[in-house]
Amino acid sequence: MFQVVEYKGTKEENYLLLIKQLKALVEDEENRIANLSNASALLNQFLTDINWVGFYLLEKDELVLGPFQGLPACVRIPVGKGVCGTAARERKAIRVPDVEQFPGHIACDARSRSEIVLPLIADGELIGVLDIDSPLKDRFDETDEKYLQMFADVLAQYVK
């Protein structure tokens, strides 16, 4: 059963608690959209200083907008384009301290200043990406990347 909890530990402890909450939300649900929706809501509640969090799902050679929290977003992103498309092509996390310095950045929300994108991979197959934007430059660090990738890896097993 899912319970809302307060995050009072270290950054690492809080992330581990977040991942535990994610498992409680998704482990008994088979619907992909429900799980992605709850995951985006959970991250939106947990993370500070963000203005968009959500998913793009792979369909052929494009990433298509999935469940998210934030302003309306770009609907389709070609694999290899922008931060999301690059993370999908390379199948690795990409942390961008200043989106204005990323070649080919796709600006869906003009307020975004930094971004982190993490691949969702299950059974060796790319499912999509988790995309998080912040209005602050250099919002995401190595700890965020490590634990958000763990979050994405757990979630991928329930949305394949």
Task: Furnish the topology, listing elements before pairings.
Elements lengths: L10 H16 L5 H15 L5 E8 L2 E9 L5 E3 L3 H9 L3 E3 L17 E9 L2 E10 L7 H15 L4
Helix pairs in contact: 1-2, 1-4
Give a brief rundown of this model.
This protein is of the alpha+beta class and 160 residues long. The chain has helices at 11-26, 32-46, 82-90, 142-156; strands at residues 52-59, 62-70, 76-78, 94-96, 114-122, 125-134. It has a single domain, classed as GAF domain (Beta-Lactamase), CATH 3.30.450.40.
What do these coordinates show?
Belongs to the free Met sulfoxide reductase family. Keywords: Coiled coil. InterPro entries: FRMsr_CS, GAF, GAF-like_dom_sf, Phosphatase_reg/MetRdx. Residues 31-160 form the GAF domain. This protein is 34% helix and 26% strand. The chain has 160 residues and is of the alpha+beta class. It has a single domain (11-156), classed as GAF domain (Beta-Lactamase, 2-Layer Sandwich). A six-stranded antiparallel sheet has the order 3-2-1-6-5-4, sandwiched between helices. The chain is globular.
Q: Structural class of the helices, strands and pairings?
A: alpha+beta
Uncertain stretches:
none
CA-based gyration radius: 15 Å
* Proper CATH architecture: 2-Layer Sandwich
CATH superfamily: GAF domain
> How many independent structural domains?
1
Terminus-to-terminus distance = 22 Å
Oligomerization state? single chain
CATH class: Alpha Beta
Query: Percent range for helical residues?
Result: 25-40%
Under CATH, the topology is which? Beta-Lactamase
Largest sheet: 6 strands, antiparallel
Number of helices: 4
String of helices and strands: HHEEEHEEEH
What is the mean predicted local confidence, pLDDT?
Answer: 94
The counted number of beta strands is 6
- Tell me, what's the shape? globular
Biggest β-sheet: strands ordered side by side in the sheet: 3-2-1-6-5-4
